[in-house]
Amino acid sequence: MEILKIEAEKREEFGKRPMKRLRKNGWVPGVAYGPDQKPFPIKIRFNTIEKIFHHITETTPIDLVIDGKSYKVFLKMVQRDKITDKVVHIDFYVPTKGHKMRLNIPLRYEGKPIGVERGGTLEILVEELPVEIDPDKLIEEIEVDISNVGLGESLHVKDLELPEDVKPLLDEEEVLLVVVAPRGLSTEEEEKEEEAAAEEKEEEPEVIKKGKKEEEE
To answer: What does pLDDT average to over the chain?
Structure first.
């Protein structure tokens, strides 16, 4: 897993006006904290954030360097301007060995569902899985094979094959995705029911009705 390096400086500016001036001068204010790390204010050059931000997720290990001292951190929260969408504040989490982390791991869905091959539409409801995990056993993403999902079928949290140390924080019945069948197109379950009914009908013995005249004889 590649470690991203970010240079930062200690921040001594606080309050609305100083923070506004800080941003105007090309800095992004932030803070780093963890179970055994008291929060400490930092600032990072906006140009630095702009260059690397598209490569950062919550699972990206970051080497945060402040005054020559290195901290292993993870991205925790990002605040953006409502109008410009520019990053205005950033939080980093400093993990401690033995303390579980809570974060979202991206789900990478692989394959084309057989239900889509048959005309269905794939609807993805969950793209990131909230989990609890040891920082030393962190994985960047979870690969999920969805090629066997049929028409009208869905994939749930309980269907995922997760590493032993990954504890999902969603209910096991939570739906991750579904293949919706078009109107008028039978789902596989309906087809199975129809086939079973047809087979049952074929197995029924033929009943011969006697006419009234035959009974009288």
So the answer is: 83
